[in-house]
Amino acid sequence: MKSSALKQFRIVALVEGVSFLLLLFVGVPLKHKFGIPIVSRVFGTIHGGLTLFYLITLMRTASECGWPLKRWTLALLASVIPFGAFVFDASVKRELQATPSTN
Hints:
Blueprint: H1 2-34, H2 37-65, H3 69-78, H4 84-98
């Protein structure tokens, strides 16, 4: 179960991280520099949904893996800092590699 939760969390976190970067570096500039707000609106909606899914997945993973409050907090911060998801992913990947496979 722990392995499965970590794998799912990694996927969701990375997809959410990419959506955040697209919103920041594509959607926002197109809106403010070129007057094309639809891209920002679409990316914002997608990113918002993925963020909710990230939070749900984080709660499940943290609970199943017994993460302490400090790790929960770092995971939350990683979701609001550009490139944070990718930095935090390194520690999740290490934890996953140290977890015995249940296959």
